[in-house]
Amino acid sequence: MTYQEKKSIVSLITAILIFGSYCAYMFPKAPEGADSTESFHYWGSFVIILTLVSIAAHILISIIFNIAFRITTGEKEPAFADELDKLINLKATRNSFFVFVLGFLAAMGALVNDQSSQVMFVILIAGGFISDVTGSITKLYHYRKGV
Amino acid sequence: MSKNLVGNHIRRLRFDHDEMTQQQLADKVGVTRQTIVALEKGNYSPSLELAFRIALAFNLSLEEVFFYGDSTKE
């Protein structure tokens, strides 16, 4: 298995673990009253903290992964992204963006169907998570099966 | 996913050039080793620029390194 394949798997597992543990920690704290100022404050901070935590965790795990990769294989990780990496990244971004837009539209659809803002935020956040996972899976698929 | 129609003789050519490693070829043409692996497996059709760089690395013409379609039919 190549460096990029391993990195895609690590990225996928990291995304699932961070999102899962963050949701398990934060969801019980959700305010009772829907559509209140407190509710919007909660969901706003939910998204911002999740974004910051995800970025920090991805950077940290990427560093740890590179160190582990060097120790276990004795190989240095690629120092740059070549044309194949860029092409795969583009495909992953395209698929990820497409899924996020679907999630966004579903979230807006929830509002149209008179659902509470909580439902809208849950769909929006789930859409963001699934788009992240889609990006990682797309990368893994193309690194394994080709472009 | 179906295999690419652009095939190549990179593996054989590396062997003919003093058993050049994938990493050595990758360094010569400015890509990662993983891209050479993907090319040899037929999982990736290179850009025209990369194809020329690989051909130049072996001092051969493009047609001597790459072919279109099934090489067994040649």
Automatic annotation (TrEMBL), chain A:
Organism ancestry: Bacteria, Bacillati, Bacillota, Bacilli, Bacillales
Transmembrane segments: 9-28, 40-69, 96-113, 119-141
Swiss-Prot/TrEMBL keywords: Membrane, Transmembrane, Transmembrane helix
Name of protein: DUF2178 domain-containing protein
Top-level lineage group: Bacteria
Natural source organism: Paenibacillus helianthi
UniProtKB/TrEMBL annotation, chain B:
SUPFAM superfamilies per record: lambda repressor-like DNA-binding domains
Domain HTH cro/C1-type: start-end pairs: 10-65
PROSITE patterns: HTH_CROC1
Keywords (A to Z) from UniProt: DNA-binding
Protein name as catalogued: Transcriptional regulator
Species of provenance: Paenibacillus helianthi
